[in-house]
Amino acid sequence: MVEKVSPYSAIILLWTVIGTVLLAMFWPGGRGLRLARQIFAVSVLAFREGVRHKVLWTVSVLALIPCAIAYYSDADGTHVGRACLILNYGLSSGEVLGAFLIVLLCALSVAREIESRIMHTFGTKPIPRWAILVGKALGFWAIDLLFILGLTVLTAALVRTVPARGETRKGSTAASSGTWADLRRRALTTRQFHMADGEAGPSPAYKLIEPGVSRQWVFALDPTERRDEPLAVRFLISSSSGFAAHVPDVGFDVSCDGTSAPLLSRAETVAQDRPFDFFVEPERLANATRLMVTVTASKKGQFPPTLMATAQLGVPVDDFSQNMVKAFLLMALQGWTLAMITASWSGVLSFPVTVALGLILVLGGEMSRQALMLMESGAARAEALGLTVGEPAWQKAVAAQLALVLQLLPDFRVMGGPTAFVEGEIFSGWVLAQAALMMGVVRVLGWSLFGMWLFQRREVGR
Known about the structure:
- By secondary structure, the chain is of the alpha+beta class.
- Helices cover 53% and strands 15% of the residues.
- It has two domains: 8-163 and 320-457, no CATH class; 190-318, GOLD domain (Jelly Rolls, Sandwich).
- The chain has eleven helices and nine strands.
């Protein structure tokens, strides 16, 4: 589901950027523009230094290995499985290795220049020390942007060529993805799923379908929702033959009001306990306001199974290109946050301590989020099963402490991270704007300003 977030985060972020630009342009005496040119000059020097550094090319080669392994593997033998594997490996490499790259570049640069006394030359220049750190952070962030951009483009290109290789595992035609259009809409487009009329709660209800009996779901169609992509009708079928991998001869009928002919009417052999989709082209819905979905259990055979079925209606939200752009932006936000914080503290910390700080920033927020999610989900599940009433006092105290840690550390796994859309999670643009404001501005300033102040007071180049 799309997470509802207030648009005020995006508005505040926009005006923060506009205010910073205006302040640089109209600073008394033209010092703002002169300072901007100085920061740009330092960032260009940092960019050139990073490009010549061996760690960049080492990390770039390492990033290609997981992509190649995923592309040449068969995954589960289907196009969908191979595409998801490539996306998981490629984007995860960009997230992990991109963080490793930016931390090493920032930690190596300033600490090494102080030790070799190169930083002493900056002390003779009319440029504030904080501007030196900001310029270096921007230069190394530019390198990180090029790294994750190249990896994102490579991952998208490999996914695009997946249909060129045949599937090695033949399954139900309800899960086929032999063409790019099939693969894109089946596995690479994220959708918001609605439940049928009369259903409520976090998950759809199962309906019992005896042999030869039909059950129907009715979905209301909102004319304001997106109609340029096919709607997905998602099913999950189980049967009384729990040992069987597939359920044979399940009848499916999909129709809408205002039309006499069904949009879909056929019998399929489907995988048991695995969700699958049927797609309805938008032009076939016209001005329909309701969609009727019917499932019929087969009565063939000596002992036909009884079915348990659910159905949901999926409305497209983001296509493949939009999801890839959002994944890139989230990795870019991670790189900016790490670049600013590690560059600010590298002026007063040694190289090993700065690297340790980067690891704490990356792993600390992730571990705290995972622990908090496990505690909350465990308490909610126990309460739903009637095993306990509410959370124990100690668990509430620990959850409060973990939530506090997440407020202090950057949380780079917003909405599941760059690979969340592979599992069908929708990454809202408002969530990204809120993350950019809270991590890219608020937490960066909170972590960086004290490090810059300490570097300003350090005896370097005087």
